[in-house]
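Pinned message: reference record for 2,3-dihydroxybenzoate-AMP ligase
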Amino acid sequence: MPNHYLKGAVAYPEEFAQKYREKGYWIGQNLSEFLHVSAEKFPNNIAIYCGDQTISYQQLNIAVDACATRLSKYGLQAGDQAVVQLPNHHAFYIVFFALIRLGILPIMSLSAHRFSEVNSFFKQTQACAYFCADFGAQKFDYRALARQCQDANPSLKHIFILGDAAEFESISALYDFDTQPPDKYVASQASSADQVAFLQLSGGSTGIPKLIPRTHDDYLYSVRESAKICELNQTSRLLMVLPVAHNFSMSSAGALGIFYVGGAVVLGTDPSPETSFALIRKYQVTDACLVPALVHPWIEKAARDQDDILSTLHCLQVGGARLADVVATRLIDEFKVSLQQVFGMAEGLVNYTRFDMNKAQIIYTQGLKISEDDEILVLDDEDRPVAQGAIGHLLTRGPYTIRGYYQAEEHNARSFTQDGFYRTGDLVRILDDGCIVVEGRSKEQINRGGEKIATEEVEQALITHPQVKLVALVAMPDELLGEKSCAFVSWQTQHDDPSEIRRSLMLRQYLKDYGLAQYKIPDSIQFIEHFPYTAFGKIDKKTLIKQL
Ligand code: OOB
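Predicted structure (tokens):
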């Protein structure tokens, strides 16, 4: 293991690193060089459409240099870490690459995160900088969140705001797009390609999201291969209405896939069909990525309006949660677009259906892995291989799958095998043609339309309420989102107790004040006196689910 590898991150064993290099997967390019190469190859191509602004590759590269230079003047330097929580705006990519260029690790927070999550990122990393918006789409005041984080974290020294900066620094003052001679810029201090480039976030099955250290080499390998599989090229225009920082949006093939081939990212802040269709029409969008919950309203709207937005739309990628077979069928038959299912995870492994697969493979499976060196195991509860085609736990290891979460030794012992396979928590089966089918989850996680909820995190927040005696969060089926959350609560009655409806409202407000992201607040709360228990004395969630 190289001794300069990020402390607290688990490096790939040398024999694997060597193999991945020999096979040409890891090419020794860091993300800063990656952008330089594209800026040189496609200087005048449009890289980003954002509102009324168009940004070429050359302009993007100049803005990144300017931003890195100005950030370095604040004293930010290689080895630092920064929480980035920006909306779908070009500033996100500029800040991301500027931090990379300075050798600073971005931590990829989502706009939906609140104090509970964002504070935990500062606690886990001692990050010294925070980049956020003034208000989000939901009119949430991120500057108030920044103040709260600053009070709780002495490490947080620099706060940069997109929009009205109040007492903080302004992000838009960090860069411009004009052509200045490059020598005025600070030289790149980006870490070498085999080092950790940034920290992605896990969907999380226990507690708050865990940090996922991704190296330049491993990430860019997945990006290049994904761009090929998704058949992206210079004329591709990818609509980006999912949160920009998510792994799907970044790399599957995502914005980085687009930047690799010289295409354009069309940014939108609202995934509704009304807004998205307008953008598709205006920019002649060729590709879009969605979570399953968004697909249904798109199909409905297109059917209602007899809308022919699809003349330019070549491919609709759907991933993040299981796409229902019936919706997949409707997409292909009615929406008349090429569907690509994407089954991936921020920890690494990504599977895609391919465009040349037959209709059944595209509708009923989640496709094939990216690399022949993605090693896949399907095991039973005792870690023994299941029969071919049977359902089991998915474990994986490969050239772009992490070997451990950041600073999580204890957790890593459970989530990774001795020989480095990641226990994904997904239940799958592998068909004879090699395609993977996701059958469910074994980990305690609710997948609410692609947004992952760690049951334990919400349970732990609820139990801190003085009148909550016992709590269990379970998934309930939902037609639109796939799953929603229901909290079963045993309530400590008091004199003058409010009605159940009032109690539910109180608990929801309590969780909001606690700082949980909105999507984690239970969709339903049910009060029960006695919980069912398993033979081991654990709360019997299966029985609770039957009561729904
Ligand atoms: C993506 O990444 P994460 O880290 O937010 O969530 C990963 C988990 C998977 O382990 C699986 O449980 C679920 O999300 N999932 C799917 C799925 N895609 C993800 N379950 C069923 N069908 C699918 N197509 O969600 C992610 C990362 C990269 C690309 C795409 C999605």
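Pinned by admin. Summary line: The radius of gyration is 23 Å.
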